[in-house]
Amino acid sequence: MDASAPQAGLAPGPRARPARVPVSFRVNGDERRLEVDTRTTLLDALRHELKLTGTKKGCDQGQCGACTVHVDGKRVLSCLTLAATADGREVRTIEGLGQDGEPHPMQEAFARHDGFQCGYCTPGQIMSAIALIEEGRAASDDDVREFMSGNLCRCGAYPNILAAIREVAGRGDRA
Ligand code: FES
Ligand code: FES
Questions:
Q1: Per CATH, the architecture of 20-96 is what?
Q2: What's the CA-to-centroid distance between 109 and ligand 2, angstroms?
Q3: pTM of the shown model
Q4: Minimum CA distance residue for ligand 2 atom 2
Q5: From the alpha carbon of 63, which atom of ligand 1 is closest?
């Protein structure tokens, strides 16, 4: 059989245009409106459309936690969240932490305890750590290790990250 011959039923048709949807949400307290491809992730919408590049893309497969943000106060992996599902919701990113020009206590604790080296995982670690305490899951070091286990750090800063979280949770000393 001639492999180059066109096969019945496989003739190329006009390409369907990707569907776009409006998204209206609050990001770090500001009302934002976008029109996105239905396949756009929240991570890409934040980084590419809104230029909020503090949220990092590590694996883009839900395995490293670098992309962690808060949606309606709960931590989510923004690489696995479609931007369209954030419609009407409140999103908080690392850029939205702190008040009046002062860093969030968790950011200060990470700096005090050297909770990072290259810093690539740090925004996700901090967003996760804040949520962890709000979830009431920082009562012991074992709990912190367990409930932070979705946030990987290739630099191995885990002991210092733990110390920072312990301090903010009220169970540890300032470095
Ligand atoms: Fe989302 Fe790795 S980039 S989990
Ligand atoms: Fe480098 Fe965590 S500080 S990956």
A1: Roll (3.10)
A2: 16
A3: 0.90
A4: 153
A5: 4
Give the start-to-end residue ranges of the domains of the chain. 20-96, 105-171
- Write out the two tokens for 86: 């954030």
Atom 4 in ligand 1: which residue has the minimum CA distance?
A: 62
Q: Which CATH number fits domain 105-171: 3.40.1360.10, 3.30.310.50, 1.10.3090.10, 1.10.150.120?
A: 1.10.150.120
Q: Does any ligand 2 atom lie closer than 6 A to the CB of residue 121? A: yes
Q: Which residue has the tokens 């946030």?
A: 151
Residues 173 and 175: their CA atoms lie apart, in Å, by 6
Contacts of 164 (CB under 8 A, 6+ apart): 106, 109, 110, 112, 113, 115, 129
pLDDT single digits (tens) 18-51: 799 999 999 999 999 999 999 999 999 999 999 9
Atom of ligand 1 nearest to the CA of 79: 1
